[in-house]
Amino acid sequence: MPSPISTEKQGNVLVVTSDNPPVNALGQAVRQGLKEAIEQAGSDSDVEAVVIRCDGRTFFAGADITEFGKPPQGPSLPEVCDAIEASDKPVVAAIHGTALGGGCEVALACHYRIAVADAKLGLPEVKLGLIPGAAGTQRLPRLVGAEAALPLVVMGNPIPAKKAQGIGLVDHIVTDGDLKDAAISFAQSKIGADIPRTSEMTNNQDGVKNPDIFDDFRAKNGRKLRGFDAPNAGIAAVKAAGEMSFAEGVKKERELFTQLMMGTQSAAMQHYFFAERAANKIDDVPSDTKLIDVKKVGIIGAGTMGGGIAMNFLSAGIPVTMLEMKQDALDRGTGVMRKNYENTAKRGRMTEEQVEGAMNLLTPTLSYDDLADCDLVIEAVYENMDVKKEVFAKLDEVVKDGAILASNTSYLDIDEIATATKRPGYVIGLHFFSPANVMKLLEVVRGEKTRDDVLATAMKLSKTIGKVAAVSGVCPGFIGNRMLSKRQEQANQLILEGANYWEVDDVLLEFGFPMGPFQMGDLAGLDIGWHRDPNKVTTVREALCAAGRFGQKAGKGFYDYDEARNRTPSDEVKKIIADFAEKEGNEQRDISKDEIRERLLYPMVNEGAKILDEGMAQRASDIDVVWINGYGWPLYTGGPMFWADTIGLKTVVDGLKKHDLPVSDYLAKKAEAGERFNK
Ligand code: 3H9
């Protein structure tokens, strides 16, 4: 196999180029090639400077994640970085695309970094449950200071070249001309100058002078970091960079990195990294399927859902025509969208021009005829089969042939909806999650007759609008809500058997969910779907509505809420539940947290197994993608199916049996055979 690293001499500069598609990951052959290239530069007296660059779409995007967990093969990345930094000839990193993780560490080991304006640099290892492992946590603070290094190491979000220049991570931005030529000239200009080595710099002392920055950072980001191991390790490593020598700091980084690599969180998060990418692929749809060009989108319904969906397209620069039945509803909807954009602008995440740009792409209308030339229409109307069918029949009449008609239904039968049209092949489910402009998940529901190009277009479009998509077959509630209903069933039952409802919520919070089922009910409104007859009480929820406890918006639901929306358990609710349980003849008993957790989560795994068995999900990891992005399942456990693999399917089966809960044949067989859901 030819080496992915090649070298060429351009005058007195050795240009070292990596060509390792798709993202120039730093696999063994790349590391070997880089090390040899540096040795070549060192031993060739004609060479006076070095440029390291990449062909293809990006600079090194990091270590090769597929090598993790396999026996290490030298040279290691830290060795390569040390060799680069030790060069007595100036080495320049020429960055385009993304310099991420190990790629950023290679750049940090170089003596200079120049980048094109749209390049990004970052240390996203925390997103894989790790910290940088090739001295990134030690070199970066020495170069840019601990305070500037913290967000990069601990949050893992890449920054644009301009911002990187602002903190001293990039020396020069190439705004015109060829990056390679600019890098060669830049390298030549540094010949004979003192060589700046990041490991020898002292900007890291800001954290020693003001150690509060570490606690302040932790306090500021506590909510986002809750439950994750790697961010704390990242903070410790950056702190060590100020307190220890470079060699000791590197040792500390290695210890922390190794600990994380051996833990369950990094395995789970690496699983998720590949799961997200796999979910966008459809096994039986050829990857070269010709896509439908979506230049204009129609949305039916300007409520919370319709407006949120519309914003996704507007933000991506795609014009939207939004239909409502009444002018005031239309005005209200567009008003809310504008306000949402303006709030984003206030938080500095959008400029005023971008707000206007997005809103200018919106055409509100009261007439179906204005949807005629849309390439995709998504309905977000009332969740009722007759209403949906009526809307689809109407759309089929007015919208041009070859356009996609999508429903945002969260549980209705897409195939039945499609029968209202003469183009069932063009009908698909696009289930957005509320708030639709924020939540990452898009459940793409493939009807029996949905055409390949319609499906492939939906998957591509999901990327364009920044969503993570997973495909579901047609079944009630699809993947996400179908599994949720099993959890809710148990939650409702548990409180009738004597578990306190706040304990049920707390168990899920402790597991890592952002909220529990009863908090979620309060937030959504307990009166959703309520028949409004206070004398007819068949569930606890109806009993709460009958008592005027409609949820957070009413200041009381399962919980009492203060002005700041802090929740406290309510004695009134406890009594309502106890009365209801007595009426139903439920005996009360103490229920342990373990039982609560097992009864909430194991039935979801069992339902996931059935979904797989029925072919409603293509792969177990798609289910994980749905639950992590749509329902707040903690990322660091890898999603319900990966979590079940981690604790063992036999544990799940035994737990279900212990609580007299059903076990599907598929799950039972897999557990019996000692298999996992994910390979
Ligand atoms: C690290 O560096 C540790 C070091 O500190 C210490 C070492 C000692 N490895 O995302 P895409 C694949 S940890 C292997 O669809 P995009 C990916 O699976 C690493 N494979 O493209 C996909 O394969 P497929 C730190 C990788 O344009 C294909 O490339 N770095 C890697 O939307 C295309 O990827 C990171 O965490 C990899 N590192 O986005 C960066 N990266 O086609 C991870 C990608 O078969 N990568 N692949 O599905 C990314 O964030 C994005 O891939 C990137 C491109 C932004 C680069």
From TrEMBL:
Q: Which GO terms describe its molecular function?
A: (3S)-3-hydroxyacyl-CoA dehydrogenase (NAD+) activity; enoyl-CoA hydratase activity; isomerase activity; NAD+ binding
The compartments listed are: Peroxisome
The protein's superkingdom reads Bacteria
Q: InterPro entries this protein is in? A: 3-OHacyl-CoA_DH_NAD-bd, 3HC_DH_C, 6-PGluconate_DH-like_C_sf, ClpP/crotonase-like_dom_sf, Enoyl-CoA_hyd/isom_CS, Enoyl-CoA_hydra/iso, NAD(P)-bd_dom_sf
Swiss-Prot/TrEMBL catalytic activity: a (3S)-3-hydroxyacyl-CoA + NAD(+) = a 3-oxoacyl-CoA + NADH + H(+)
Which UniProt keywords are given for this protein, alphabetically ordered? Fatty acid metabolism, Isomerase, Lipid degradation, Lipid metabolism, Lyase, Multifunctional enzyme, NAD, Oxidoreductase, Peroxisome
Q: Domain named 3-hydroxyacyl-CoA dehydrogenase C-terminal: which ranges? A: 477-561, 598-658
A GO term (biological process) for this protein? fatty acid beta-oxidation
Pfam families assigned: 3HCDH, 3HCDH_N, ECH_1
Record-stated family: Belongs to the enoyl-CoA hydratase/isomerase family. In the N-terminal section; belongs to the enoyl-CoA hydratase/isomerase family.
Complex and partners? Monomer.
Protein's UniProt name:
3-hydroxyacyl-CoA dehydrogenase
Give the source species: Parapontixanthobacter aurantiacus
